[in-house]
Amino acid sequence: MRKTILTFIVPFLLLSLPGCSLLDSGSPIEKKDTPGNALTQAAEKNNETADLKRLELSGYSRRIGATLTSPKYKEFSVNSSFMVTGRINNTKRLKSSYTLITIRSEKDGSHFKYLAPIENGRFKQKVQLFNGKGKYDVKVSLPSDESKDYYYDLAQMNVTNVNPEVKRDVLYTQNAYQQKLKLNSSIDGYMKKDGNVDIKGSIDDDKAKDLLVEMSKGTQVTKIMVPVENGHFDTQVPLYFGEGVHTLKVMTPASNVANYYNEAAELKVDNTSDTISQPIEFSKEYSERGFTLESPAAGGIKTDLDYELKGKIDSNAPFAKDTDTVFVQTKKGSLEAMYAVPVKDYAFDGKFYLRFGPGKYDVNVFAPEISSANTSVQHFVGIAHFTMENNNQHDARYSLPSRGIQSDDMEIGRLSAQLMANRHNDKDKAKAVYEYVAKNIQYDVNKLDKRSFAFDDSALKTLHEKKGVCQDFSYLAIALLRAGGLEARMAIGYAGQDHAWIETKVDGRWLTMDPTWGSGYLQNGRFVRNYTLKYFDPNPEEFKKSHTKSGIEY
Questions:
Q1: d(CA 444, CA 516)
Q2: 402 is a domain residue
Q3: Buried b vs exposed e over 64-101: b needs ≥16 C-beta within 10 Å?
Q4: 242 and 303 part of one domain
Q5: Nearest Cα to 200, choosing from 165, 226, 176?
Q6: Angle ∠(351,357,358) on CA atoms, nearest 5
Q7: CA atoms of 306 and 554, how far apart (whole Å)
Q8: Residues 388 and 291 both lie in one domain
Q9: Which of 134, 169, 204 is the last residue of a domain?
């Protein structure tokens, strides 16, 4: 897994100095709400009957020439929110350019913070009381004129919110301001969503290629990578932990340390769906090789037989231009199947199947290990792992497409239909496929000698190039058989060397055929064409004398 170390700015140290000055004049509360609003009227009534006391400022205010123009009073009531505004004369002495506003809810002790930029000696911030109806302690603090990341209290007030509705802004840290991270205006600090939430926005940092989102609910925690492209990001994130409030922390990459992330924004999402899904596990190679997986978005999904694998690869990532295929392995117990999804213009979009009937599957997504390409032993790099559940009751292990066997391709389908036309039984259909492959595919001696197996070897490639080795003969034959409605599988074993041939279901039995051997033979390092039916439905005992079967592949 990607090593993630979370670092944060030095915690704010608040130093209180004795308060001694009074704000001289001004109306008590700024009235910006609709006059007819019942809650606004309730807040105003509270203020009219209360003994409002002028807000006192700390001695630090005189040291830097700070005043608070709003609010004016130490205790007051509002409908959900109010404005904090002020000015500072001696800003050149300050070690930071932000005013810190801290809000504490007396209801449960929870906190919220604002960093209000100080611009031209002024600061202004709308303060949203984030926890609904109740009392809040609000503290306004100004940056130290001596030490960075230290703040001195300017004023403290007690505010009553008469509005029961929970409203919350996105909490932004200093990192967000420094890297100009901004979430889309449609994103609030508290939202209700049904199963998913869109993380969308921008960041003005050329080095930021991804963000880290930490999601938590109680003791449950997971992390999700969100790709950044040209300074923008837009990813739908599942709310993995079912019904209830999820806390999402958006983190930006540290500028000077690789694989370190700093907290930049926080929001809370109340999930109304009771569906519990599982996070996808990503390896370090996932980010190193520039992958972005768009589908599936989560593990634990229930599906009907198949699912879409979709994503893209950063064109500037290592090996991106050489990655022409992404592979999916599905496992159910001891049963395994492999699928190949082509990559075109650095994007991939294809299906994988849960072919072994109903139940839970482990799914692994692989990228080819490019340094080992074109050898007899192919190596893969794991980039993602998740689980899925198949609700389809049908076991289709011998009839669905699989790696190298594109039985769902239109060209394969047309050829299969053409070969099987006017064939009245399954054995004759299988024989037509055997005859076509054995007569039309040339054995590739050069590929055998150089052991130049490629990650994109397949039935379609064999059909187009009209050459291959035993694996390629088998890919094409099985694809044609499955496209024609016959169950088929690849037998692997030994026949003088590692070898592959075909078994297809005919009249309730597995019929053996080896179109590679049926196409001809090798003599003095050359392929000699010599078509024969000897290896179509051969006598089992005779066949065992030359072929030793060790297993099957789907």
A1: 11
A2: no
A3: bebbbbbbbbbbbbbbbbbebbbbbeebeebebebbbb
A4: no
A5: 226
A6: 100
A7: 16
A8: yes
A9: 169
At 317 the three-state DSSP class reads coil
Q: Among 235, 258, 276, where does a domain finish?
A: 276
d(CA 474, CA 476): 5
Long-range contacts of 404-407 (CB under 8 A, 24+ apart): 404/340, 404/457, 404/458, 404/459, 404/471, 404/475, 405/458, 405/459, 405/475, 405/478, 405/479, 405/482, 406/458, 406/459, 406/460, 406/479, 407/459, 407/478, 407/479, 407/480, 407/481, 407/482, 407/483
**Do strands 260-271 and 171-172 pair parallel, antiparallel, or not at all (unpaired)?**
antiparallel
CB 278 within 8 A of CB 292: no
The reported pLDDT for the residue numbered 12 is 34
Q: Which residue has the tokens 């929970």?
A: 166
Contact residues for 48 (Cβ-Cβ < 8 A; gap 6+): none
Rounded to whole angstroms, how far apart are CA atoms 377 and 451?
A: 9
| Residue 351 structural domain | 278-397
* 19 pLDDT above the threshold of 80: no
311 exposure class (CB count in 10 Å sphere: 0-12, 13-18, 19+)? buried
List the beta strands (DSSP E) in 410-497.
Answer: 442-443, 467-468, 488-494
242 and 309 housed in the same domain: no
Residue whose entry in the numeric block shows the structure tokens 């919220």: 112
- pLDDT of 376 over the 90 cut: no
At which residue do the structure tokens 């047309």 appear? 414
Cα–Cα distance between 237 and 178 in angstroms, integer? 25
Number of folded domains that form the chain: 4
Q: Are residues 391 and 429 both part of a single domain?
A: no
Beta strands in 106-147 (DSSP E): 111-117, 122-128, 134-143
68 & 196 share domain: no
Judged by phi (left if over 0) then psi (alpha if -120 to 50, else beta), residue 201 lies in left
- 372 and 460 fall within a common domain: no
pTM (2 d.p.): 0.70
Please state, as a whole number, how many other Cβ atoms lie within 10 Å of the Cβ of residue 146: 11
Q: Of 486, 467, 488, 463, which is closest to residue 476 (Cα–Cα)?
A: 463
Looking at residue 372, its pLDDT comes to 54
Each residue's pLDDT tens digit, 154-201: 999 999 999 999 999 999 999 999 999 999 999 999 999 999 999 999
Domain membership flag for residue 403: no
Which CATH number is 453's domain given? 3.10.620.30
15 and 140 together in one domain: yes
> Per the structure block, which two tokens stand in for 24?
């001289």
Residue 488 maps to a domain? yes
CATH number where 282 lies: 2.60.40.10
Whether 494 and 519 share a structural domain: yes
Task: For residue 445, tell me if it sits in a domain.
Answer: yes
